[in-house]
Design goal:
Elements lengths: L3 E10 L6 H19 L3 E9 L3 H9 L4 H18 L6 E4 L3 H16 L3 E11 L4 E3 L18 E10 L5 H9 L8 E3 L1 H13 L4 E2 L1 E2 L7 E2 L2 E6 L1 H6 L1 H4 L7 H7 L4 E5 L3 H14 L7 E5 L2 E3 L2 E2 L10 H8 L1 H10 L7 E3 L1 H31 L13 H19 L3 H22 L1 H4 L4 H22 L4 H10 L6 H11 L26
The chain binds 5'-O-[(L-methionyl)-sulphamoyl]adenosine.
The site of 5'-O-[(L-methionyl)-sulphamoyl]adenosine has 19 residues, from β1, α1, α7 and β12.
Length: about 525
């Protein structure tokens, strides 16, 4: 029996195309999803697009399109880029889909029936960028929103409100008590503490509907009002599992095992989302992880500053797999990080072209030169010493870091293992041994090939295509995914090695060419 694992990314607004920041969350989620599959979990992975609200209406207007035409065009673009990046999502959800309307109606109606929704006249400062109301104390000294640096507009409406205040203690208990049967783990710790601090101050009820925004999902009990875009958007996480129509599938995978997002939207996920779920008697997510923000050359990425890096540009420069690797490991997951093209290229050259690429090409070159591009004969079990050492080294550091979503550290342990192999080669000086002792040379080359193979297994979640190429280049035995699943269960190295004696190898000189 496989254990289920449900992972989500935020659903992205379709007012703009994906940039490196969106790719960061999505690639990370994909790497975790692939990692879990290799560890024999039954993974469900949902991503998608957030298509309602004022922001979308005004973007469509600017482009002279209807909102739906814009959503159709942009959601396709998101799908296309995720497919290019090899994102192995199980379900892509669009909030304009009928199945999502059904889920939102069901949840909002249930909240209404349970008395958590009431009508109220309201005046507030609305930031369209964030799609939320702010009170003056939440704004900077000049009265601007911290994220968008624009002044929210005063809006007056009679809306339906969600009794968020009723959930204060219910949420606090779930976040602070690790033994609560519905414990919500919020990571990283500092952000969890911020949430707890804010929760302790108290919760204000929030607007749940808009009367002036027609581009949304009408409330089932008052068709003149549409669901507030954030309430609408959060519900995607259950729609994506088939709620409410495919209740078996939903019950199989819910609650989410991990929901990823950046810190800008943690409040919605850590407080409003659990409140909605508790309100309709569903369990909240088990783990919510808010990562930091990418800045580019010290600036927030924004179209107006024309300093946005797109995933397509990255793919054009580095290729798909290297893009996945660099983007997911260039900054620590918990903190903000500044990046530049220079640093991205440096990471590519150091980790992939120099360390990994060189190791593979030099080993295969030696096998070509001395053993006719074939895996030499295994002499005795000492031939497996090196691969066992590498396996032991990685087993601890890589796995802990992957399970804690510290991808930059997991990648570092891989790089350390590669450096270890490179150093071993320098120490062994096989080019000297070639002149004197063929059987010792066979022992070394055989050992190196096995070490490459085990590295390929660990590279699989990060760089699925390259890992397979490497696996084939060393003539390793069997389907890499199947071998990896077996290996990650018991960490046993096959008796005859992965690449068995006599296997045909392939030259591998241009896997990651140096970029100048
Ligand atoms: N539509 C909402 C989310 C609703 S989820 C129920 C939204 N969309 S967004 O298009 O603005 O995407 C926000 C998410 O994109 C962030 O939480 C993060 O995952 C990712 N990022 C956007 N810019 C980013 C950076 N500069 N750096 C890192 N991640 C960034 O908010």
């Amino acid at each position: 029996m496989k254990i289920k694992f449900y992972i989500t990314t935020p659903i992205y607004y379709v007012n703009d195309v994906a940039h490196i920041g969106h790719s960061y969350t999505t690639i990370t989620a994909d790497i975790i999803a692939r990692w879990k599959r290799l560890n024999n979990f039954d993974v469900f992975f949902v991503t998608g697009t957030d298509e309602h609200g004022e922001k979308i209406v005004s973007a469509a207007k600017k482009k002279g399109q209807t909102p739906l035409a814009l959503c159709d065009e942009m959601s396709e673009k998101f799908k296309k880029i995720w497919n290019l990046l090899n994102i192995s999502y199980t379900n892509f959800i669009r909030t304009t889909e009928k199945r999502h309307f059904i889920a939102v109606e069901k949840i909002v109606q249930t909240l209404f029936d349970k008395g958590f929704i009431f009508k109220k006249k309201y005046e507030g400062l609305y930031c369209t960028g964030c799609e939320r109301f702010y009170s003056k104390k939440d704004l900077d000294k000049t009265g601007c929103c911290f994220f968008h640096k624009t002044k929210p507009l005063l809006q007056f409406e009679e809306n339906y409100f969600f009794k968020l205040s009723a959930f204060q203690n219910l949420i606090l208990d779930r976040i602070t008590d690790p033994y609560h049967k519905e414990h919500i783990e919020i990571l990283p710790k500092e952000r969890k503490n911020e949430i707890i601090g804010k929760l302790k101050i108290g919760l204000e009820d929030i607007s749940l509907s808009r009367s002036i925004v027609k581009w949304g999902i009408p409330l089932p009990f008052d068709k003149e009002q549409t669901a507030y875009v954030w309430i609408d958007a959060l519900i995607n996480y259950v729609t994506g599992l088939g709620y409410p129509e495919d209740i078996n599938k939903f019950q199989k995978y819910w609650p989410a095992d991990i929901q990823l997002m950046a810190k800008d939207i943690l409040w919605f996920h850590a407080v409003i989302w659990p409140a909605i779920l508790i309100g309709v008697e569903l369990s909240p997510p088990k783990r919510i992880y808010a990562h930091g923000f990418f800045t580019l050359n010290g600036n927030k990425m924004s179209k107006s500053l024309s300093n946005v890096i797109s995933p397509q540009e990255l793919i054009d420069k580095y290729g798909v797999d290297a893009t996945r690797y660099i983007v997911s490991t260039i900054i620590p997951f918990d903190s903000d990080g500044d990046i530049s093209w220079h640093e991205l290229t440096l990471k590519y050259n150091v980790d992939l072209a120099n360390n990994l690429g060189n190791m593979i090409s030099r080993i295969i070159k030696m096998a070509a030169k001395y053993f006719n591009l074939k895996t030499p004969h295994k002499i005795n079990n000492l031939d497996l010493e090196l691969v066992k050492k590498i396996s032991k080294l990685l087993k601890v550091s890589f796995i802990i870091n992957m399970n804690n979503i510290q991808l930059h550290k997991a990648a570092q342990s891989l790089q350390n293992a590669i450096t270890f192999i490179n150093k071993q080669i320098e120490y062994d000086t096989p080019w000297k041994i070639a002149k004197t002792d063929t059987s010792k040379l066979a022992h070394h080359i055989f050992s190196y090939l096995q070490a490459i193979d085990v590295i390929a297994l660990y590279l699989l979640p990060f760089m699925p295509i390259s890992a397979k190429k490497i696996w084939c280049a060393t003539g390793a035995n069997g389907n890499i995914d199947e071998v990896a699943k077996k290996y990650f269960k018991d960490f046993i190295i096959p008796q005859d090695g992965f690449s068995i004696s006599g296997s045909q190898l392939q030259n591998m000189e241009n896997l990651f060419l140096r970029i100048v």
